[in-house]
Specification:
The protein contains 13 helices and 10 strands. With 378 residues, the protein is of the alpha/beta class.
């Protein structure tokens, strides 16, 4: 794999622009489809992932609780070829609005093939994890979810609790980093296609909200609270609130549209190609079928992610981003303010979504060497 640390971002539409398109084109019905061809036989045998099952890994579903009492659901992957000693371990989650049967499970299974005990988990209120109402995200609770996964791993007799790391993908990257700032049991952190959801939600793409627009979004969310209270249930809405050309808030009930518009922007097409096609579609994934609760953005306005990132040092950070990813600047900005040891890897020719599942682009060799180096016996 050719890695170019000096490569630049190609021209891409902002995520805000994506939501303008999807909000206008959203439909209420769900897309019903089949898993990818490579995983079809496993799916027929009861395998519920969008990627093929590995013959080199043992897998089982597990449950554990976070400190708020919410029961989390995870998939535990263990290397079949393992000795009597205790294993280094990893907790993996993301992307934002995805489930463990998608990208995080692929990362977990692949790292288990490479000698780690790995759990991929659904954040609270999503997937098979507990929490009511459904489809809620919380920067605080979802950060806690990583520490709860560390709790689970560290209680297993086959895990060395002094050698536990985390991987955050896309929008769960900020939670992974934030968890490490206050949980020293996390010995190393890696992220892939990082999205800072607090920054993205409260300031929009490249911090493009004006002060007036931020106030409009806060007022819209506040008024939505009245609507939800009167209805007795939360409404669905767009978690990154866009504006139309006239300066009005765009509303919608689906993250991604039922079908692509003509001549779609490449970023919209990339997300659609993962979440809304057999490549990555999963019925439990918010991004595949529905949206977050409309008031989900409120806590992200109040809770900046990784504000104390310097507390992670001297534990190491590895951030991986695609050369052409519209989200690349999040990783670059974090690496600039983080204390060492730290490393930013730019994957040549990759966009944001490529690092979800493209085995020829995800630098698993680098992830393995990073954790092998830093999750060492002491």
């Amino acid at each position: 794999m050719n890695i170019d640390p000096k490569s630049t971002i190609g021209g891409q539409l902002s995520r805000r622009g994506i939501l303008q398109i999807s909000g206008a084109a959203a439909a209420a019905t769900s897309l019903m489809t089949l898993p990818s061809t490579a995983a079809a036989a496993d799916h027929a045998a009861g395998w519920d992932k969008v990627f093929p099952k590995s013959s080199r890994v043992d897998h089982r579903k597990v449950n554990f609780k976070n400190r708020y009492g919410i029961t989390l659901s995870g998939d535990l992957y263990l290397p079949k070829a393992r000795g009597a000693g205790r294993l280094p371990a990893l907790a993996v989650s993301g992307p934002f609005g995805a489930v463990k049967e998608q990208s995080s499970g692929l990362y977990a299974q692949t790292m288990a093939e490479r000698g780690f005990a790995v759990i991929a988990f659904d954040p609270s209120y999503t997937g098979e994890s507990g929490g009511q109402p459904r489809n809620v995200a919380s920067p605080d609770i979802n950060t806690e979810d990583f520490s709860a996964a560390v709790d689970y791993l560290g209680l297993q007799p086959f895990v060395d609790r002094e050698r536990i790391g985390v991987i955050g993908i896309c929008g769960l990257s900020g939670m992974a980093l934030t968890a490490a700032t206050s949980d020293s049991r996390i010995k190393a952190v890696a992220t892939a296609s990082m999205y800072d959801m607090s920054r993205s939600i409260s300031r929009s793409y490249h911090d493009s909200y004006t002060p007036e627009q931020r106030r409009k979004v806060v007022d819209y969310l506040s008024q939505q609270r009245w609507a939800d209270a009167e209805a007795g249930r939360p409404a669905l809405g767009l978690h990154e609130v866009p504006f139309d050309k006239a300066g009005n808030i765009v509303k919608g009930t689906r993250v991604l549209p039922e079908s692509l518009p003509a001549n779609p922007d490449p970023v919209l097409a990339a997300f659609f190609d993962y979440y809304r096609t057999p490549r990555g579609f999963h019925a439990r994934a918010i991004n595949s079928t529905t949206a977050w609760t409309a008031t989900t953005p409120m806590s992200f306005f109040s809770f900046p992610m990784h504000a104390n990132i310097g507390m992670i040092s001297p534990r190491p950070i590895l951030l991986i981003a695609g050369e052409n990813a519209h989200s690349r600047y999040y990783s670059e900005d974090v690496i600039a303010v983080a204390s060492g040891p730290k490393e930013l890897m730019i994957v040549t020719g990759a966009d944001h979504v490529d690092l979800y599942d493209r085995m020829d682009k995800i630098p698993f060799d680098k992830l393995q060497s990073f954790f092998n180096q830093h999750l060492v016996l002491r």
